[in-house]
Amino acid sequence: MYQKLLNKERKIAVIGLGYVGLPIALEFAKHFSVIGFDINEEKVKMMQNHEDPSKEVKTEAFKGKDILFTADSEDLKQAHFFVVAVPTPVDEHKVPNLKPVISASNTVGKVLKKGDYVVYESTVYPGCTEEDCLPLLEKNSGLNGGTDFKIGYSPERINPGDKKNTIATITKIVSGNDAEALREISQVYGRIITAGIYEAESIKVAEAAKVIENAQRDLNISFMNELSIIFDRMGINTHHVINAAATKWNFQRFYPGLVGGHCIGVDPYYLTHKAQKLGYSPQVILSGRRINDGMPAFVAKKTVKLLIKAGRDPKHAKVLVLGITFKENVSDIRNSKVADLVKELQDFSVAVDLYDPNASADEVKDEYGLKTVDKIGQDYDAVIIAVNHDEFKSWGVADYKKIMTVKPILIDVKGVLLDKPKDGVEYWSL
Questions:
Q1: What are the helix (H) ranges across 330-378?
Q2: Known catalytic membership, residue 263
């Protein structure tokens, strides 16, 4: 398969062109003939015009690539090596929502041919590829997995907003249903990955490796978040404590914050879901999730307490929240915990202005029912720096003070202004 792909006698199809799929498709298109497929026709048209809907990939990255962008599943019949990179979110009950990956499996299954390969990149729980996806591929194709076609799993390791650690410079885990599949899949990815390939012992091992990467980070941040709650009661700053503790050689730096996004705040639920189906109720993982999910309410309550302390009636207070994306310097708003923070404040009858130059106002409205402002006002009782975009970090305390009323309150969630002078401002950070 690898040699035929390299000779462009076969094509690669990437299913799902979001923050994971598009960069992979373009990277493959440097060496192979690629079909980029997505069900969102509007986004496909943008990519056909060399524009990334997520604003992560620059226009120059599209040029000179052997790639066809399409929303027509008929075009997938030309492909022989399929990469599935669709979202895998959780529902409102924190239960894995496999609808996108199931839909993609059905789509690919209908165009599968003997000798084809299907590799999943979407984050799933261990066993999902073989137990949930493979049967759909077989059912829709009438073929037998392992003999008529091969499957594999290679977890995505894209970090939105990170221009240093890119696809090619991050070690890639690959796996296959047998030795032949592993060898071919390893060669295909090895063509675009300069950092090296790690061949996992099985598909389940590769799936498990992905979910624990983010579960580990989730737990470390939850520990810091719990510390921030404790230290707040003690009247000391968590960042100062971390800086002091970090003087020990084996201390690892993690910081408190709002844990959102489509990885850290989601992936642990895939692992716990599978564990519960096997009769085990996870303790540590779910405990960490509860703490992190509760941080928006903690920040909101702290803001209200500071308003009351300053003599403000929360029902007549006006607060500016800066940032709605799930992390700094990206446009992605999925699973944003800032949205939860805004709604918590609104539950206290606080008037909130939400501003984010990186986010789409229409997407924020559709996803969360929240309205963003185009322009920052001048009469806020408090300002919350919820996301540390570069634009917000460039402002000094004096700049924030100018847009607030008397007895100004500055809530700095990530502590970006921690070491700056705070004259005349009530300052608080996690």
A1: 337-347, 361-368
A2: yes
